[in-house]
Amino acid sequence: MTERQYRILAGCSFLLAFVPAFNYVMTHFFVTGGFFLDSARVAWLLGHSTSWPLADVPMMFWQGPYNNVHIVPFFLFTSALFQALTRLFGDLHDTVYFALFNGVASGLIAWALFSMLAGGVYRLTRTYFIAALILGVVAVHNGAVLLMCSRPHYEIGIVALMVLFFKLFIDGRSIAALVSLTGALLLQEWVGFQMFLLLAPLVVIMALHRGDDAFKRRAMVLALFSFGCLVYAMLATGYHLLAFAGVREWRNLYQGDPAWAHLTDAFIRERLVFYYQFRACLWAPAGMILVYAAARRDMVQLCGLLAFLPWALLTMAAVNTDIGIMHAYFAAPAVFVIVWPIVANALNRELALKDVSGWFAGWGFPALVILASLVTWSGMDGHSLDPQPWRNFGFGWYGNVDRNITGVKAFMNANSELSYFADDPSASLDNENFTVDHWLLGKYWELQKPDFPYAELKDYDTLVMLPAYLYQKKEILKVINGLQLHFVCRVDDTDFLAYSRRRDLKHCTPIQSAPRVPLAPTR
Predict the structure, then answer these.
(1) Is the pTM of this model over 0.90?
(2) What is the pLDDT of residue 517?
(3) E strands of 291-359, at which residues?
(4) 32 near 392, Cβ under 8 Å?
(5) Whole-angstrom Cα distance, residue 304 to residue 341?
(6) Taking Cα atoms as reference points, which of 17, 64, 73, 66 lies closest to residue 41?
(7) Spatial contact of 523 and 433, defined as CB atoms under 8 Å apart
(8) Are 183 and 104 within 8 A, CB to CB?
């Protein structure tokens, strides 16, 4: 295997992970329909955060900066890049930029994992390198990642920068590793605590291991990184709690009020049963790592798992259901746990902490862990918003981008006199025309209540929506029928429909008029 061939395979690992991740987010926004509160909000923040504190997306129904939720200085850098790209290449929609962010993050994970699998074995066969390529790419699509797919989020970037940090540290590139680590810290305040819990035990392991002066210097560098993570996490968390609504968020999402009063026997039993039935893709790989590390007395493998144990326990105990069941992007730290065996083997090999020269230790065990997370995915049984995310890894979005964005805007401009509101996919694509008063879920947060107040909507005459959108389908049907929005037309040159009491809508072709309209695409 020549160096050129190695670089080609490394590039392939990046592309083979980039393409599915990019396609999924594009499909999410332009085919199946984006969630405004999560994915579209993040897309806006990635490209439009130009001041501090971070201004939240204008359509958000609660007031205040995004710093009330998290401290994310990283958005200032991504927004600067977004503004530069738009000046150089013209209009770049923030949802497309967000898809690029997800694709690059996934590609970096695959590239780093491939490099760590192939490191130190430069003279091995081409078959081994191809196997490393496949394993690195499959690892990026492990069970926790598939769980995250349903609501694309920027937290995949945290995982990417953490994995990249270890790859760069293993290569001896301390400055580049520090840059990557800093990026991970700036993406969320809690990352510092998790990195400290991960790095501090590694420093202890290295301190107990005899090595030359170069080895001791690397241990010292890692100790400084560990200390810096803890200091930043404490400062950022304190800043969040004191200056913004961090205390309220903590109480509402985690501890409850009264504090931890929800942790009854019945609550704990219900959570444990749920994880046993529907989150095997998370606990099965963790259990395998625990057994393997104990059997081999591999402390490096073990510390990667134990470092995330406090997060897992805290998450499972959270009063908020989505957090408590690690729904969607709340499972992001578990992605790192599942790929940790690859990182741990690279650390063991490079620092000579443990013999991992055998085929099973080198790549067989990491492959089993990743395979376990995929095989057990079938147990989701509907407890994910997207039970088959791989269906959206293709190019089904192609051709939908410009026509849907420009078509919705043209419809809004041509019918400016309408009293309209929109579902999440429509709001996600047009931040200019839609405000909180036009966003159905934003204005009526309690939409799912059975006594939904139709009287408060009596002045609205039109709903713009994407018919393929499945989230809150029943509630939207209830609104359509409750307000008697029985005239239906397709917004010209788009996949969107308009349900209205008016029949004089411009840029909209009538397709059906009936008391009850099925929410299904009509071509």
Answers:
(1) yes
(2) 46
(3) none
(4) yes
(5) 8
(6) 66
(7) no
(8) no
What percent of the chain is helix, strand and coil (3-state, nearest 5)? 65, 5, 30
Q: What is each CA distance from 89 to 25, 26, 319, 492, 493, in whole angstroms?
A: 21, 19, 46, 27, 24
- The predicted pLDDT at position 50 comes to 94
Strand, coil or helix: 242: helix
Residue 23 to residues 325, 390, 471: CA-CA distances in angstroms?
A: 27, 10, 20
Contacts of 227 (CB under 8 A, 6+ apart): 196
How far apart are alpha carbons 29 and 117 in whole angstroms? 34
412-466 pLDDT per residue, tens = 889 988 888 888 898 898 877 777 788 887 766 656 666 666 777 788 899 998 8
Angle at the Cα of 374 from the Cα atoms of 372 and 376, rounded to 5 degrees: 70
Q: Which residues on adjacent β-strands are paired with residue 490?
A: 497, 509
Q: How many C-alpha atoms does 121 have within 13 Å on its Cβ side?
A: 23
pLDDT tens-digit readout, 367-393 = 999 999 999 987 566 677 788 899 999
- Report residue 68 as tokens: 């009330």
Find where tokens 């969107």 sit.
496
Q: Look up residue 497 and give its amino acid.
A: L
Cα–Cα–Cα angle for 317, 370, 194, nearest 5°? 40
Q: Which of 23-37, 290-304, 413-427 has the lowest mean pLDDT?
A: 413-427
